[in-house]
């Protein structure tokens, strides 16, 4: 395999899209798409621009929900892309416009959470209620790194292996952000020796099979 060295402006090699819901100063909900998120046990580490309304909200009101849309929701996600809940729009976001009701703008529906004040996104099959346990600048000084402790997980019944605590990977696909293009997952290739859901569990055929 031959390689060249390149200097891409972004390093999104394919990460799930998450929709973060946080509480604005007036008690309304802000909804924002992001993809710099990964799980560390029961903590989700989030990377956010410091000037977005989401980071501003989390610095003072740490409760949030982390909602994972399925691939068919990419148009709703992209409708949120040029919007910010920050008013006035910061100069670092010259291509964004202020939108106070991003749920309506996206065509998505808020639904009550159980343990935190911000709502979840009704259309998302997998969603977490969480609290920002740590909010700090990243090493480069450009972003904020948030460690969000997950308090409760919601999963649509049709992506749960019946009678278990497991999400069925044959039935669930995240929406993947791949160098700013949206993808779903392809066919299953195999599973880890640590899988708690080997194919015998799956009551539906694997995606694409
Ligand atoms: C698919 C997608 C992924 C994004 N990922 C991130 C991210 O990981 N971190 C971030 O700060 N902004 C990310 N953004 C940009 C934010 O959504 C954008 O800054 C937005 O203004 C945040 O809204 P807010 O200002 O209301 O918080 C992403 C946008 C899209 C559409």
UniProtKB/TrEMBL annotation:
Name used for this protein in its record: NADH-FMN oxidoreductase RutF, flavin reductase (DIM6/NTAB) family
Taxonomy of the source species: Bacteria, Bacillati, Actinomycetota, Actinomycetes, Jiangellales
Required co-factors: FMN
GO MF term set: FMN binding; oxidoreductase activity, acting on the CH-NH group of donors, NAD or NADP as acceptor
Organism: Jiangella alba
Keywords, comma-separated and alphabetical: Flavoprotein
UniProt-listed Pfam families: Flavin_Reduct
Membership in a protein family: Belongs to the flavoredoxin family.
Family matches, as InterPro entries: Flavin_Rdtase-like_dom (IPR002563), Flavoredoxin (IPR052174), Split_barrel_FMN-bd (IPR012349)
Domain spans labelled Flavin reductase like: 14-185
